[in-house]
Each structure stands twice: as structure tokens, then as C-alpha cells.
Amino acid sequence: MKQVYIKTYGCQMNERDSEAVAAMLRDRGYGITGAEDDADIILLNTCSVRDLAEQKALGKMRSLAHAKKQKPALILGYMGCMAQSRGAELLENPAVNLVVGTQKFHKIADYLDEMELRTPFQIADIAAEAGSESTIKDHILGSNGDRQVTAFVSIMQGCDMHCSFCIVPSTRGTERSRPIAEIVDEVRRLADQGVREVTLLGQIVTSYGRRDSGKSAFAKLLAAVHSVHGIERIRFTSPHPKGFGDDLVAAYRDLPKLCEHAHLPVQCGSNRLLKAMNRGYTRETYLKIIEKLRTARPGIAITTDVIVGFPGETVEDFEQTADLMRSVEFDQAYIFKYSIRRDTPAAALPEQLPEAVKEERNQILLEILDTRLLRKNEALVGTTVEILVEGPSNKKPYRMFGRTRTNKGVVFDGSDRHKGHLLPVRIERATVTTLYGDPAILNL
Asked: Any idea what DSSP says for residue 344?
């Protein structure tokens, strides 16, 4: 049995895509290994959102090409967003056999089967394919008999927003949504296998069904998933502020399974730059959405994405972003230094900022964030929170790990028998990134 190793770069969408490809390959008779050295086939699932992710994948492939000299039968391939963006040019590395774009993941097993029948060859397939949004539906729930209690569910592919800094519309294509019934059936099957929490995924998840069903389609989907017996928690990512209409705000009020956590990417606090980014909202509109969410669901956690160093960002623009971060007091923020993405409008803008300026501003925002995160987390010490136990902690496998409904990680002393359970845990200690629970609560 040929063994396949898949290394994933980038977002949760890529994690989900890798899982689906692994499930397809397993069903075709391939083994899935977590050990690169044991692999006969190595696939890199790539990201193009930032230059760093691309450089990591390219560097990894160079090292694999060197290893292939000692193992000539090794098959190497790229898949995902960078594969879609760069296409056949990636085959200029003679060690690469396969380049598969974002709409052709379901063809990977066919291409690997073909390579079994004849001398390995090179192929690049980045063509669009109707219906590809419904091929990401297979799951591998745990390994070695472990039970998985959380799962990602892809509900759509593509993006029609065309933010000036973003390459995703060209790598993922236009918006394509799966039918509600198909998604609910997948969620029901996951629940039957022990999954207790699902995260609905899309490039702009709040645009779900917009082409076919109108603005309320995503709220209808949330209600349908909410009705699935056995599912205890629902999350979704990544949305766009323009998708937070009154119906979605009401869903936070009316659907108990929808966790009180909203990821609301702001990107920056300057209206001038928001317009240059083609984001379609203002600072004031964004703050109004947060106000509505906090009214509908008191205690809701708000997280965000921020880009620092966008072309032309002045000191005043940056201060407006820093001020927004101070005033909103996010529960988490993913702060990225702007990097040029080819074939995007922002790449051609004048006044590209020096790396040193971007790094300095990045550190200022991180300091603002960490100060507020520590204060918020320390305020939870002495309180009791509900967590869904996911399994052993990655960093401390002798302890267990779970998440609050507001998506804060909690480490506590427990055992595998607690996996999959909703537990009340008393918080005894907090850091910027982690809460630590009182093990005495486990006697309840």
C-alpha cells in the first residue's frame, strides 16, 4: 500500500481540504501517514494569502527535491491556492510530479493511480470545474481509533468580494454554495460519529447562498444545522462585516447552539484605507455591528483580522487602527504585515511601506492586543466556564484540553474519559493565550 503524507499550510479551509483529500485517497486504497520519511507520495497543500506561506512551501519542496535524489520513486506534488495561482510554472522544478488547483482536489487519486501504471510524469490541472464545491465532504475523524469531537464543514467555495489586497478570488474562483440539505446530511453523519461541534467554513462564509437564495440564506443554514440532534455547538469562519445583517445578529440571540463568538475581520481602522482596500464598510459601520452583537448576545467574544502596513498607510491611519483596537478590546486578533500579492490591485499601488516600518507597527498592535487579552483572561480567574473537551493538550499531552463557548483554550488535569463531554471548569490561572482549570471540578 502506497503511503501518502500531506503537509498543510495556511487557513482552516486548507486544513479541511487536506482532510477531504486524505479521506478520498484512503478510500482509493492509499495509506495516510503522519511520518514524512515513510511516505511514497508527499503533497504540499499550499497557501497564497501571504508571501511567507508561499516561501515556506517552495523551500519545503526544494528540500524534498534533494531527498528525492536518494529515493527516486518518491512522488511530489503541490495542491491548493499557490498551485492554482502558479500552475505549470511549478513544474519547472523537475522533481515535482503533480500540481492540482483548488477545484480539482477530487482528481488527485485519479492522477496518482495513473502514475502507478506508467513512469511518473508531470501534470498540472488548475481548470475550473462545476460542482467542485460539493466534493469536499469526506472526513477522517481521528486516527488510531481516537474519537474526534470537533469537525470543519465546508459549505461553499470561492469569493466575489475582490478586496484590493487579496489573491483569494483568483485562487478559489467565484462563490459556489452547497445545498442546505447536503450540508445538514453531512453534519448529521458527523454527529452520528460522535462529533459535538462543527465549524462551517467558507472564504466569505456569510455570503453563503447569496447568488441563489438571497441575503438570509446563511441564517437559514444556521437554523437548519442547529436542528441536528447531537450537535452541541456551532461556529463559522471566515465572515465579512457586510454579511452581519439583522438576521444573523438575531441568530446569535435565538440559536443557543451558536457559540457566543464572532470573528469579524476589520483589517484596519482608517476609512481612507478601508476604501482603498475595497472593503465596502466604514469604521463607524463596523463598530455599529459590534454594538448590535453585544446587545443581542451579552458576553460575546469578538475576534478580528488586521493588516498593518498597507500601501500608503500614514501615521494617522495607523493610529486610527491602534485606537480601534484599544476601544473594541478584541478577544483575539490575527495581525499580519501586508505583503504584495501578484495580480492584485494593491500590488500596483505607490507608497509601499518599508519592512522595518511594518514590523514596528506590527509590534505596537501586538502589545496592545496582549495587554488586553491578559486583562480579559485574568478576569476569568475564579469563575466557572463550560468547556468542550477535545482531547490531550498538544503542548502538555499529560493534561486535557478544551474550549469555552467564546473559543478560549483551557488546559486541565483530566483523562481520556472526559473527551467529548461538556464540563464546567473553574479557572484558577490565566496567561495571554491559555486558561488553566481547577481539576477538582472533575469530581462533580
From this structure: S
Compute the distance between CA of residue 155 and CA of residue 161 in angstroms, rounded to an integer.
17
pLDDT the model gives residue 216: 75
Kind and range of the H or E run holding 237: strand 233-237
CA dihedral sign, ordered 77, 198, 242, 223: positive
Read off the pLDDT of residues 232-267 as tens digits, 9 standing for 90 and up: 999 999 999 999 999 999 999 999 999 999 999 999
Return d(Cα 200, Cα 177) in angstroms, integer. Answer: 12
Taking the C-alpha atoms of residue 202 and residue 136, their distance in angstroms, rounded to an integer, is 12
pLDDT at 137: 84
285 closest CA partner among 316, 239, 319, 241:
241
Neighbouring C-beta atoms of residue 158, cutoff 10 Å: 22
Which regions of the chain are under pLDDT 50?
A: 144-145, 444
Query: Could you tell me if 418 and 389 are in contact, meaning their C-beta atoms sit under 8 angstroms apart?
Result: yes
Burial pattern 351-390, b for ≥16 Cβ within 10 A else e, equals: ebbeeeebeebbebbeebbeebbeebbeebeeeebebbbb
The whole-angstrom separation of Cα 87 and Cα 340 is 19
Give the tens place of pLDDT for each residue, 43-90.
Answer: 999 999 888 899 999 999 999 999 999 999 999 999 999 999 999 999
The alpha carbon dihedral of 156, 160, 165, 166 has a sign of: positive
Distance CA 151, CA 236 (A): 11
| Strand 422-430 relative to strand 435-438, pairing | antiparallel
